[in-house]
Amino acid sequence: MGASYRGQADALPMSAEQVIAEARKAFFVMFAGLALVWGLQLVNYADHYALSRDYGVRSGDIGSLPDILVAPLLHWSWAHIESNSGPLFVFGFLAAYRGVARFLGLSLLVALTSGLAVWFFERGDADTVGASGLIFGYFGYVVVRGLFDRHLIDTLIGVVMAASFAYLLTVAVPGTPGVSWLAHLGGLIGGLAGAWLFRDRRPRAGAGTDSRQGPGPAARDKLQVRSDHPRADLHKELGELGLL
Asked: Compositionally biased, Basic and acidic residues: which spans (predicted)?
């Protein structure tokens, strides 16, 4: 029964306090991530981009397979990293604000799908680096996450992001010189898959009450927010918006 209880508890909607706490953690995680990327850029630049040459993903090269996890942190120029930094922070934060642990799993999945797309299908011996594969993965995740999680706010965010940044998809298809469209496409596929794999698992109908144990986890969660609770109105409004 213990395992069953935990499975249902994990599926409960997040409270307002949990959402705020996770958003705060997401901000600092993305800030730290950008600091790492820029720190590596300084080292890379000082060494004439030796890191990008040594740890870039090369198609068909078995030795470069582990570099799939490192290449997204490296860039080829200041213009390269500057163009990636803003979208990386924005889409990364939107992907992470509902759960940093889930976001880390998503990041690993996207890095793998983006890097493997390059490793299997890229032509030539170019070293592919850059965070754009992650950006496309986060973008795809943010656009469709609300549909899988059935959160109104996340669905609206996805619609706005899709409408505002649809032009990004033009560099996820062949034809843009000097751009690894395969890394972009692989990242996008990973983000879309991640939205389904890391979706909220809600309790099945009828699972809220156990005749032997009294109210189930979902029912107990509702009882915690009484009408005289100082944040009762906030919980109600956020719930109606699909945030809880």
From this structure: 219-230
Q: Please name each of the domains of the chain with its CATH number.
A: 16-197 (1.20.1540.10)
Residue 149 contacts residue 101 (beta carbons within 8 Å): no
pLDDT tens per residue across span 63-95: 999 999 999 999 999 999 999 999 999 999 999
H or E stretch at 210: strand 209-210
Distance, CA of 176 to CA of 168 (rounded, Å): 12
Q: Which amino acid is at 107?
A: S
Name the residue among 241, 225, 139 with its Cα closest to residue 185: 139
CA atoms of 184 and 132, how far apart (whole Å) = 6
Note the pTM of the prediction, 2 decimals.
Answer: 0.79
